[in-house]
Known about the structure:
The protein is an alpha+beta fold. The protein is 35% helix and 23% strand.
Amino acid sequence: MAAMDAMGALMMTAEELSNPMHISALIVLTPPEGAGPAFVDEIHRACQVDADLVDPRLRRRPHRGVDTGGAWTWRDADLDMSEHVFRTTLPAGSGREALWSFVGDVHAEPLDRSRPMWQVHVIDGFDGDRIGLLVKVHHSVVDGIGGIRMIESWVCDDPDRRGMQLFTAEPSRERDSSAGTRFPGPLALARSTVEAAAAGADFAVRLGKGGFLNVFKALTGGSATLPFSAPDTRFNGRLAPARSVAGAEISRARVRAVAKETGTTTNDVLTAVVAGVLRYWLLAHDELPDESLVAICPITVRSRDAASDDADANAFGVALCTLGTELDDPAQRLAAVHRSMSEAKEQVADLGSGASLAVALPAIAPTVLLPQIPFAPTPRPAFNLALSNVPGPPTDRYWNGAHLEAIYPVSTVYDGLALNITVCSYDDKLDIGYVAGREQLPDVETLIPLTERALSDLEAAVGIER
């Protein structure tokens, strides 16, 4: 039995109180030339891998009881692949809209915590011979980056390679199969207490500094976002069970060109594109606030050299970023995003991961907790949506000759945060996953053409001709 890490335990508890806390990814595959309709059966058979070979993270289930003192833990579990792998053929003539509708329905359903908390759906019958793999894993098992890395371990860069399986672990991962923290003994607890006390003063200084800097910068004309300064939108209410999902893609080269032309970063440009999408959508629904929407964004504190270090995978903080949605000029909107993101990165790097999370917590908690309480007061939210960027494979990938065409991330939404947008870079493009409560965003498919419009308008505004 292994103790669950603090973030995983928080996710499990949040799910008990509110909404399902899993993440998903839709992988779209193009079968190899001449494969025929039986190729989808080959994929389904490959999913029936020996349970003993499955990634250790997918062979355990959550547990909490009197025997654990109320703490969340991981227990080894018998794995029946038929309870985790499913096959679906969409109606004849189905396109992406039918695919996204199916993904939304599956994403809305909670995972069974009495068994390992993951599923894979093998989907065919859309876009001719395309095949989809919908991978759904609880957030306590892996985070977004961990999920993408897991998927990467199942594919390769060789289109001629055959005999590949799914769900199996890399050798390095197999050796670290404990994948959790063992309950510490008395000496370990004592040592941790001393270390925590020694670090406590520094943490307190950082914590106080972060709160002061937020207020000071906002009041003196900086780009910092004060807590509870986001406008109230339909994205900050309570969720119904249904979900709406859509995926778009844009050229990585086009985004880089805008960044180079404006002296900003590709992440700034992506954020500005999303801001444009939301501005257009809110204008079309006559709901654009006079003040800028605010996004909550994870900010990494890892160096480039440590970017692939699994031991440092949770080295990130969070920051609030103004999106400039009140600005009509896309170039001005990008400049506003750049200023806000630059200050956010500087603050997170200065404070460190823990202190930046602690500074943000007093703003995060009421935003997501108060919508769950009937008749509770409704202060202005601290943010309106979540926005993140996950690095995916840098070059083309294949599975038994099938080309991995796209990886669309489908993240978590919950009461108070009914819109989540995640971008996954893959080869020469950026795959964008939009997920929302269906009541809040019933026409999510309209965001797909708005994504192209927002990028094109931004290119024109900064003087890039296409």
